[in-house]
Amino acid sequence: MTTAAVDIDLARSFGLKDDEYEKVLSIMGRTPSLTELGIFSVMWSEHCSYKSSRLHLKTLPTKAPWVIHGPGENAGVVDIGEGLAAVFKMESHNHPSFIEPYQGAATGVGGILRDVFTMGARPIANLNALRFGAPDNADTKRVVDGVVRGIGGYGNCVGVPTVGGEVNFHRSYNGNPLVNAMTVGLAQQDRIFLSAAAGVGNPVVYVGSKTGRDGIHGATMSSAEFDAESSSKRPTVQVGDPFTEKLLIEACLELMATDAVVAIQDMGAAGLTSSAVEMASKGGIGIDLELDHVPQREANMQAYEMMLSESQERMLMVLRPDRTEAARKIFEKWELDFAIVGHLTDSGRITVRHKGQVEADIPLGPLADEAPIYDRPTEPYDVPAPLTTPADPVGIEGALRTLLASSDIASRAWIWNQYDSTVGGQTVQRPGGADSAIVRVEGTKRGLAMTTDCTPRYGQADPYVGGAQAVAEVWRNLTATGAKPLAMTDNLNFGSPENPRIMAQFVQAVKGIGDAGRALDFPVVSGNVSLYNETRGEDGQATAIQPAPVIGGVGVFEDVAQSIGLAMPEEGELLLVGETRGELGQSLWLREVCGREEGAPPRVDFAEERRNGDFVRGQIQQGAVDACHDLADGGLLVALAEMVMASGNGCKLQTAPHGMAEHAYWFGEDQARYVVVTRQADAFMAQADAAGVPVRRLGHAGGETLQLADDISLTAQQLRDLHESFFPHLMGAE
Amino acid sequence: MKVRVFVYLKEGVLDPQGKAVGHALQTLGFKGVEDVRISRVVELDVDAVDKAAAQKQGEDMARALLANEVIEDFRVEVCA
Amino acid sequence: MKVRVFVYLKEGVLDPQGKAVGHALQTLGFKGVEDVRISRVVELDVDAVDKAAAQKQGEDMARALLANEVIEDFRVEVCA
Amino acid sequence: MKTGIVVFPGTNRERDMVQALTLASGQAPQMLWHQQDSVDGLDLVVLPGGFSFGDYLRSGAMAAHSPIMNAVRAFAQKGGYVLGVCNGFQILTESQLLPGALLRNAGMRFLSQDCHLKVEGRDSAFTAGWQTGDVFRAPMAHGDGNYTAAPDVLDRLEGEGRVAFRYCNADGVVSDDDTRINMNGSARSIAGVLSENRRVCGLMPHPENLTDEAVGGTDGLPLFKGIMEAMGV
Ligand SMILES: Nc1ncnc2c1ncn2[C@@H]1O[C@H](COP(=O)(O)OP(=O)(O)O)[C@@H](O)[C@H]1O
Ligand SMILES: [Mg+2]
After folding, report:
1. In this predicted complex, what is the ipTM?
2. pTM of the complete model
3. Of A676, A672, A578, A673, which Cα lies nearest the Cα of A627?
């Protein structure tokens, strides 16, 4: 391997463009060594450099008085009161999860956990946003099975509860599923750890698992589209070791309680290279690495391999020299490798030595600053016209039955029943109980609400709305539990940015996210971009995924006892908050009942969203609301059925208003709406009126059935039978 | 006919179980122990006319289900 | 010396994994498959003077940790 | 009264257990590291849930050989109270402080959902907080909870009243073959067992996760109240 001649062909095979290789030559003033070329190629990969997305990400709102650290660190940090902070981020592991679903998903969870505990936070919750191919696609069952087992296998073992997430199925993900994992951690505001290295002479310390030849070139690989050849280019699949991760969490947190750590960074994509380069360049300092000291799992590893290995469960730290031995003891107690692999210098360069040879010597400034940035061309996007309401082919009950059993609405219990959602002893709302998961902040009365959302079919039709609606839905899901929304993380999954139509999707979606975030005071504090999510068919044509700008949100409760869920209470009046126009464009009703994916997605009106949400939250915080559910996929009637199934308590509904098609009323996906159940309906209505918030009386909680008119009456059990059939059927009788 | 399918991790793939077991054995006082790898054997009866057919069935089953060829290799033995 | 410890469920102990795999194989169309048993193989290097010593070490390790004799039996093979 | 919670590498429900014991007794338990070789001075030792040593090889196998387990064994022989939940139960069977073993769940999937448990008899500290026949809800979270033992061992356990808890439905109906009720496939629907002297108890579900009204309910609290009462707290 070391004998491979470094030239433009090799550079191309490493994923560098010709002009990028030219730039490498001019920075180095000579032909780079193999190891140097490897370092440039991974640092300049889409995954590490954000070269196609950076210009656009810069436009996102990232500030608010409660934001402590926005994008740029391993995870975002937000003030949640009492000197505490929520630390969170989302990360994708899409391509690896198609190749080896179990390990791909498992190591995705491992990676995002490390991003959070690197900052000194104890991970307290995991969520995941999953997108699979069509249910009848040959690969789907294998991928669902492996991904779900992998997420559970890792999260359950490390003892972080998996409390929420979302799942979609669509044929555009047949060859390219999306696995986005989010971790939320808890830290003390005065004990947040960052990655900027400081202190010339300070030791650089490697901890965790040993290095093997895992996933070499994973970073460039995850930025390359799939094709027939990609199987031969497969890097060795990374195998996750959640047990070691658990030890690493405990050891790092124990160490961080001392004053030994100057800087710390997980080894994620591009392993030792990106962690060493990032720490040193953020600190404006140099770094010398001695690879002979790197703990190695395999024999005869080359410098190139060690620098690019993506072996899991490893961290790089800069320690205070006088605390190094105390630190070593902690890692020995936890039976983890601990090795001093280098030190900081004032050279401004990264120098890598192995077996007495200098294998790489690169100026850090240019490596970081001259990384390519592209303002990629876009092609105007035709947004479909609004849909005229189609005729109803099946009636209300038929459509409800179809929708409840459909892939995007069906109960996800089959999945979440494989995730430990209670470990930690703080889970107030488990999956299915509320619009957001709710976790108490240990040792306080406070709580955090958290959720992930995205509606790719909206973004496929209108990328701007796709971005904006994802933010609105997240904000609404937090609000519906009574939480104050604080901030979001994002995971932008798109096709190839080199395709101007896809690039336009990306730009518009980011614009939608930014506008929504500004309007709702809901800044972006961390995120991740995953591009090249495409499958090349036998005809050589690339098919991109439906764009998925996934948003993860976190909100706070001062007193978690004030939070509410969505389960239908035994009594109370049902009210619909927000205006109903009956928008069926891109709705699930249209797709599942009529087989059409058409029209404009529902309008997202930020002012309406904010006004309605702020009002509902205020009512919940006053204790006036017993249950609340936001309206999204499937519209009003699906939301009501979900409330009935959650508790087994029924409700009796008034007929649809005149002047609107009945099916548009029950199944339209108009935004900015909530169903609330209250025993103080008159006061609620009066206050809503004063606040300019439209509210409509829907009916009453009670009985054992969801009852629409005399002829439509379904028991909770009948609803559940429909709702719970999809996954067992998909996965086969077990 | 009895068929045994041995399924083991490919060379170079991390074996977290083997690592932990090796460590535990050393703690228990088995000092010279090294290089612990854990694999599995699936033993089953197949309905085959001869050894070659049984061997083929074993390989087909390994490819279809028993081994995950992305990270594992396998070997089939037919025992009489 | 290379030692292999085979650990398998005792006769009469239900093997949920074997059962599930047997079922899956049949669903995949492997019709004649029966009696699927899955066992674990721990392969390791021991520091032993001769085959007998290696065999003994293998057995000791099986009793000490590798097998749970309440439900499992084991067999040790020394390979060269 | 002094309680201790053993932490092995990979244990992950120790904080949940601290919370439950503190709520029930008003006293914070002591944390015990697996390499300690003594549990002197304690009245109750708890082995909490998790994935000790990753649950690699077999759940609980490596933990059963940790130095502290010799001390726990001696403690149990002297009549000390020992509670093992989930991974703790697996460790107790692997250490042969309790009979039987826990195999992979019959459905081969990790199970994380609420189950119902029936209290088979109240003549132990671990069951005294309920009435015989009471049914309570408890979360499960395990991959290897399928209890098995030789038929004669099972007969003996039943004969001696050493089955502490069985899986049942919300109405108390036990049905070994119904996978909605006996979800992990345990022999005779056994969810928890007692030692001969009734002072060692192991069970798979997690009563410690339902001990606080603010976090899901208090269905599991009687377990801890019962222990405290038996020990005169
Ligand atoms: N879409 C995005 N929006 C906002 N911030 C982003 C986005 N994508 C990435 N970031 C931020 O850029 C930084 C680098 O991200 P990334 O390379 O994914 O981190 P890591 O190296 O931990 O994998 C992080 O601070 C991340 O939060
Ligand atoms: Mg990071």
Report:
1. 0.94
2. 0.95
3. A676
